Amino acid sequence: MPNRLSGPTESILIRGGRVIDPSQNLDSEQDILIEDGKIAAIDKPGAIPASRASKVIEAKGMWVLPGLLDIHVHLREPGLEYKETIETGTRAAVAGGFTSVACMANTQPVNDTPYVTAFIRERAKSSAHCRVFPIGAVTKGLKGEELAEIGGMVSEGVKALSDDGMPVMNSYLMRKAMDYSKAFGVPIISHAEDWNLVGQGVMNEGPLSNSLGLRGNPAAAEEIMVAREIALCRLTKAPVHIAHISTEIALEHVRRAKDAGLPVTAEASPHHLTLTEECVGTYDTNFKMAPPLRNEKDVEALQKAVAEGLVDVIATDHAPHGLIDKALEFDQAANGIIGLQTAVPLTLKLVHDGVISLKRWVHALTVGPSKLLNLPYGTLQVGKAADVTVLSPKEIWTLDSSHLFSKSHNTPFLGWKLQGRIDKTIVGGKIAYDSDTK
């Protein structure tokens, strides 16, 4: 099969848009010229002749951003293709404005050997609509008993290590994983929950879980493991990233770690930034996730943490599931929701509401994730790859299932009115998504 991201590119002039690029401290109306898959020029409106381009994109009234990066997605291939494939997941990604995604290791078989890593890399070459970066498992089979083949996976292209979905409970094993991760120059991404304390909990523990008759997952389960990861980071000096952080106290742990100069980073998901535990009152399994939706105080603390840069990255934790996984009683249903096509409008609302600055929001979707995984993207600098997201920030639309490109439709946002829509997504100088043609 041909490589979707290779082959000839056309010269493109993006004209009259508001260019926002935190990597260059740029926020002004500019024209951008793309040639040979790279950013060839950025200049004031009208300064670049249209004759230099074979295609002109009129972007007046739109925002032109570095291509967005999502460092936390589940593409499910190999082995769980009934939920998602690399092709369908990355099609949803470009429709959501993402030009790069990093896929977690909980496939079947698990991405715990260089052979599985190579399979994902090669499948992405032939079928992906955007750049795909594999994340390798910390332990074999995600069982938390024996380290995976870290060196071999790194040589085949993994950009980070994570047992996401299955916390590594053995502290000694996690310490050794950090030693290896530092030696190979990749971060550890921690699913920070004390599995023993979580037990059979399925929602945030508190008065509401008691009234709903659902077992609680206490905030302390996250806080304990975040504190442990920071202690191990202090011991090893290995970079540690906290996935989908969700509690106020866990954020304070991260704050103290950063103040101490430790290489600790964190991400927030759109659902933890915008939804509270009150949503669970409907018993809709599309509100079931791990970590669970927290209380309003936690959500406000998380929003503030993104606004001030304490949380470095916004990541979707895109977790597709089939009907067979979600059409169950709440305590039996799978955790997680899809998020690639709703991340932009959901979090952009926080910008429109004045909670997060526009620059900070773009940074958390571009510079932050690119820096974490040591990728040469998330920028519109001249000479860099032409990964570009063109966004219509004022457009209001209603999400329905016909909009979704993911193979699974497990989202609680169907029927929601959203503001902000992706107009075009360009990957390596090629238009990967166009709202006019879809």
Can you tell me about this structure?
The chain is an alpha/beta fold and 438 residues long. The protein has two domains: 12-64 and 384-434, Urease, subunit C, domain 1 (Roll); 67-372, TIM Barrel, CATH 3.20.20. The chain is 30% helix and 21% strand. It is built from 14 helices and 17 strands. It has helices at 86-95, 114-127, 150-155, 171-184, 195-198, 207-212, 219-236, 248-259, 270-274, 296-308, 323-326, 343-352, 358-365, 367-372; strands at residues 12-21, 26-35, 38-43, 55-58, 63-66, 68-73, 98-103, 131-134, 188-190, 203-204, 216-217, 240-242, 264-268, 313-314, 388-398, 417-427, 430-434. α4 crosses α7 and α7 runs parallel beside α8 (248-259). The longest helix is centred in the middle third of the chain and has 18 residues, at 219-236. The chain starts with 11 loop residues before the first strand and ends with a strand. The mean pLDDT is 97.
Percentage of β-strand residues: 15-25%
Number of helix segments?
Answer: 14
Low-pLDDT regions: none
| Main sheet attributes: strand count, strand direction, barrel closure | 8 strands, mixed
CATH architectural name of the largest domain:
Alpha-Beta Barrel
Number of domains: 2
Secondary-structure-derived class: alpha/beta
Instruction: Give Rg in angstroms.
Output: 21 Å
Which word captures the global form? Answer: globular
Helix content: 25-40%
Instruction: Please count the beta strands (DSSP E, at least 2 residues each).
Output: 17
The name CATH uses for the topology of the largest domain is TIM Barrel
Termini Cα gap:
22 Å
Q: In CATH, what is the class of the largest domain?
A: Alpha Beta
**How confident is the prediction overall: mean pLDDT?**
97
Q: Kindly report the name of the CATH homologous superfamily of the largest domain.
A: Metal-dependent hydrolases
